[in-house]
Amino acid sequence: MVAKIQFIKAREVFDSRGNPTVEVDVHLTDGSWGRASVPSGASTGDKEAVELRDGGKRLKGQGVLTAVKNVNTEIDSLLADQSPFDQARVDALMIEADGTANKERLGANAILGVSMAVARAAANSLNIPLYRYLGGVDLELPLPFFNVINGGKHADSGIDVQEFLITPIGASNFRIGLEMVADTYHTLKKMLKDKGLETAVGDEGGFAPRLKSTEEALSLLVEAIETAGYEPGKDIAIAMDPAASEFSSDGVYNFEGKKLTSDQMISYYQEIVGKYPIISIEDGLSEHDWDGFKKLTEVLGDRIQLVGDDIFVTNPEIFQEGIDKGIANSILIKLNQIGTVSESIAAIKMARKNNYTTMISHRSGETGDTFIADFAVAMNAGQIKTGSIARSERVEKYNQFLRIEEELGNSAKMAHFDVK
Ligand SMILES: O=C(O)[C@@H](CO)OP(=O)(O)O
Ligand SMILES: [Mg+2]
Q1: 170, exposed or middle or buried, with CB in 10 Å at 0-12, 13-18, 19+?
Q2: What is the sign of the dihedral through the CA atoms of 70, 72, 74 and 80?
Q3: I need a surface site. Which of 207, 249, 290, 333 has the fewest CB within 10 A?
Q4: From the CA of 44, how far away is ligand 2's center (Å)?
């Protein structure tokens, strides 16, 4: 007998910032089941699907009991007797029942928790790993991007740029890449200490030293890579997520004590890309600055990867508009920005069709759930960012890749990054 969904049970648990979030168990008629929990962002895009919070839509720290109740009552009845193997139908039923454009009635956190847990339950019922269930064969591991210096909304370091990431582009496999990054991370820690700078970490496990400028952070990274014995730009390269929506208002960028225009920001990026081994910049400009983002793409798009996060919010409709306008050449994929596994897959397919690269992403508030690791392999996504190696809710995901790499054995490959 092919298994059906028997019942669904959600509960409130806590994420890595101590905020309530949704965890869902999906039970099947054959006795197998799957569990998933939902992450939560701090620097959220305005058009993200709505994370339902008790007594207010986006207030952090508030409970998710309404979202939990929506799963345990309405979604439980809606999906009873449905096939867990028809992910598209399960997701479509929830989207239809919600009835809003941004999932604000049932809550994207309720819907995504169920969507992911259904996939896990289906994989468990077939007794195969999640990445196999979602991806089949011919899979490769993504190139990981590690956030080693935290700023913006993720730390009190006073740095405007939210994330400075390093990526082992020269590594021959995932394990070696992880080792190279660990070396560099420990070297950076020692360097910070020697310079009398703080080594406490931010929300994503990157250091949060009080630095004066972006360039100071970039120089520190180059020095750490070299001191660890690697060649910057060849073995290990740098990426940034300024999350520029957070420091811009009314078309002005309040950056490092100055008020800059979009054009000035673009010139600044050109300058630093010429000076440092930067291969990727995410959200270099505000999600409201589409003209600027287009210009940025014209100026730097053939030299580096330009990732759209807040500007596309993993939303296939908004992304299509961005593609038509020539904005960015890469998309960040966050499942909770759109709220279902199926719609996230649609955004990835759209990227592939239009020659955009894809980077799967964690949120700054995470749980121990490693869903995105399996998802990134299954989708052959090419890239992932899931923090540094100093917070277990992030390390768990990197460790999951090590397990997958071991399982894939000789056929395990890591995605290559085309440095221009
Ligand atoms: O901006 C980002 O890319 C993310 C993840 O690093 O941050 P948050 O989850 O706070 O939106
Ligand atoms: Mg971002």
Answers
A1: middle
A2: positive
A3: 249
A4: 8
One digit per residue, the tens of pLDDT, for the chain of length 420 reads 799 999 999 999 999 999 999 999 999 999 999 999 999 999 999 999 999 999 855 555 689 999 999 999 999 999 999 999 999 999 999 999 999 999 999 999 999 999 999 999 999 999 999 999 999 999 999 999 999 999 998 888 889 999 999 999 999 999 999 999 999 999 999 999 999 999 999 999 999 999 999 999 999 999 999 999 999 999 999 999 999 999 999 999 999 999 999 999 999 999 999 999 999 999 999 999 999 999 999 999 999 999 999 999 999 999 999 999 999 999 999 999 999 999 999 999 999 999 999 999 999 999 999 999 999 999 999 999 999 999 999 999 999 999 999 999 988 999 999 988
- The H-assigned helical ranges of 41-195 are 65-70, 76-79, 87-98, 108-126, 130-135, 174-194
Rounded distance from Cα 359 to ligand 1 centre (Å): 12
Please report the atom of ligand 1 found closest to the CA of residue 153: 10
Owner of token pair 């279902």 = 340
Q: Whose CA is nearest to atom 8 of ligand 1?
A: 41
pTM exceeds 0.95 for this model? yes
The CA distances from residue 260 to 77, 255, 267, 292, in Å, are 53, 7, 10, 12
Among 109, 309, 359, the mutation site with the greatest number of ligand 1 atoms within 8 A of its Cβ is 309
Instruction: Tell me the CATH architecture of domain 5-127.
Output: 2-Layer Sandwich (3.30)
Complex confidence, ipTM: 0.99
CATH topology of domain 143-411: TIM Barrel (3.20.20)
Q: What ranges do the domains of the chain cover?
A: 5-127, 143-411
Active site residues: 204, 334
